[in-house]
Amino acid sequence: MTPMKRILSCALALVVSLIAAAYEVKDGAVVFSSVIEGTGTVEQAHAALESFFALRYNDVNSTQKLNQPDRLIYKGLFSQLGSFAMGMWTIDAPHTVEVNIKDGRVRVRVSVSEAVYRSTGGSAVRYTYSVPDSAPITAKCSNSSVSKKDCAAAFAEIERRAQAILADVERSLKSSSADEDW
C-alpha cells in the first residue's frame, strides 16, 4: 500500500469512527457500552460470563477484580494497537470490562482511560497519555511526545477491539441461553 493510500485509509477509518461515536467520555475514561436482552436468569448469565472471560483472558484469576452474583469486573490490556514510526513504536491501552447482571438482561461496559506509547526496541522509553483528552476526541494528543495521527489511529483500534468484546459477550450469552432450549 502506498503512503498516500495508507493516509487516506486512516483518514477514512477516523471519519467512520467519529460518525459511529458509539462511546461516551465519563469519569476520565472513554466508555463503550451495550445492553443485552434475553440473557436468562442472573445465575445463568453469571455462569456464561465466567466461562467467557476464562476463555477470553486465559487466566481469569489475574484479570478478575470483582466477582459478585450480579456484577463482574475484569482488567485487561489492548496490546500493540498499531505500529508507528516504521515499527519503532507501538501503543498499549489497559482496559476494564464491567458487567452488571439483572434477570433477563446484562449491561457491559468497556472503559479505557490511558494508553502507553512505547518503544518496540531495546529502549525502555514510554509515554503515557490520556485517551479521553487526545485525538480524535480533542484536537491533539494529551502528551506532546505522541503525534495526533498516532493517537487517532490507536483510538480507532481501541474502539474496534472494545466493540469486538461487546459483540463476543453478546454471542456468548445468546449461545449459552440457546443451549438451554435444546
The portion of residues forming beta strands comes to: 25-35%
Q: Taking Cα atoms only, what radius of gyration do you get, to the nearest Å?
A: 18 Å
Assembly state of the chains shown: single chain
Instruction: Give the N-to-C terminal Cα separation.
Output: 48 Å
CA-based shape: elongated
Describe it.
The chain contains four helices and nine strands, in the order αββααβββββββα. It has helices spanning 3-20, 42-57, 60-63, 148-180, and strands at 24-26, 29-37, 64-68, 71-78, 83-84, 89-102, 105-112, 114-119, 126-130. Strands 1, 2, 3, 4, 5, 6, 7, 8 and 9 form a nine-stranded antiparallel beta sheet that branches. The N and C termini lie far apart (48 Å).
Short description:
The chain has 182 residues and is of the alpha+beta class. It has helices at residues 3-20, 42-57, 60-63, 148-180, and strands at 24-26, 29-37, 64-68, 71-78, 83-84, 89-102, 105-112, 114-119, 126-130.
Explain the layout of strands and helices.
Layout: H1 3-20, E1 24-26, E2 29-37, H2 42-57, H3 60-63, E3 64-68, E4 71-78, E5 83-84, E6 89-102, E7 105-112, E8 114-119, E9 126-130, H4 148-180
Antiparallel strand pairs: 1-2, 2-7, 3-4, 4-6, 5-6, 6-7, 6-8, 8-9
Helix pairs in contact: 1-4, 2-4
